[in-house]
Amino acid sequence: MSTAGREARPAVDDREIVVGRVIDASPELVFEAFTEVRHLSRWWGPAGFTTTTKAFEFAVGGVWEFVMHGPDGTDYPEWIRWTEIVPGERIACVHGEFDADPNAFESVLTFAPDGPGTRVEMRAVFPTKELRDEAVGKYHAVEGGLQTLANLNAYVTGKES
């Protein structure tokens, strides 16, 4: 819904995290890196993390079940269900530790041309302010999101370490 050129949306500022970055690659390549598991498993996660995929079906209603392995040896089970896919433009999903996780959050990723690159924005909306604050304070979600996008940039430009 639009009013006077501004998009109306529910007030969620105290429950959301937004990170973004311009990726030095075309929107088509960046979108492919997000949607094909052979790519996604190679760059997803903050610095020092690796990812093991258990299941992956990129389709509305499909699931990506995976484990992120922290640099300290801690494993983090993750579960994503895709809720909207607009090729080259937008991906929406629910992200938690398991199916029906009451603490799962909604996430929207957008892709837009930006010069020769692609602006990627990752917006996460948590069920409560407390869960958002925990993600920021305990799990360093903002830094982790920015590191994840840096990993993506390194991967698609062939500058992986």
From TrEMBL:
Pfam families: AHSA1. Coiled coil: none annotated. InterPro entries: ASHA1/2-like_C, START-like_dom_sf. Residues 24-156 form the Activator of Hsp90 ATPase homologue 1/2-like C-terminal domain. Gene3D superfamilies: 3.30.530.20. Belongs to the AHA1 family. This is Uncharacterized protein YndB with AHSA1/START domain. It comes from Kribbella jejuensis.
